[in-house]
Design brief:
Number of strands: 0
């Protein structure tokens, strides 16, 4: 019976409930009202910084995918779906990817914290770094 609660349908319901709660946090505004001015970190499209800003956006997406892959790998290891050799290879690959992300950030004078976009009432895109 406990496995039925963990099925894909249950997970979909959990995600839908989380999205509903998140949208309830957003204030309802009429068409005539202007939203209050907020200062947020945005990518500035200046000719001098366009390359760095584009790299920042791409690295943000790559970091998000890297973290998702890492979580999925840990889940598979916990479930015992992988052989010892696969676990070693996966771990080495994830370490190399993490190192490359740090190298690219250093190359473009970015920090991992700068890649974490603020999504307003939804919080940040990436979980807090440990």
């Amino acid at each position: 019976m406990p496995n039925e609660d963990r099925g894909p349908g249950r997970r979909f319901d959990e995600v839908a409930d989380a999205a509903t709660r998140a949208f309830r946090l957003l204030p309802a505004t009429s068409q005539d009202e202007k939203p209050p001015h907020r200062t947020t970190r945005r990518i500035v499209a200046e000719p001098d910084t366009v390359e760095r800003d584009l790299v920042k956006l791409v690295l943000t997406l790559v970091e998000l995918l890297r973290q998702l892959m890492e979580r999925q790998a840990l889940h598979r290891v916990d479930e015992g779906d992988l052989t010892e050799e696969e676990v070693e290879r996966l771990g080495a690959t994830l370490l190399i990817l993490h190192d490359r992300m740090n190298e690219l950030c250093a190359r473009y004078d970015l920090t991992m914290e700068e890649l974490n976009l603020d999504l307003g009432p939804l919080g940040t895109l990436l979980p807090p770094s440990e």
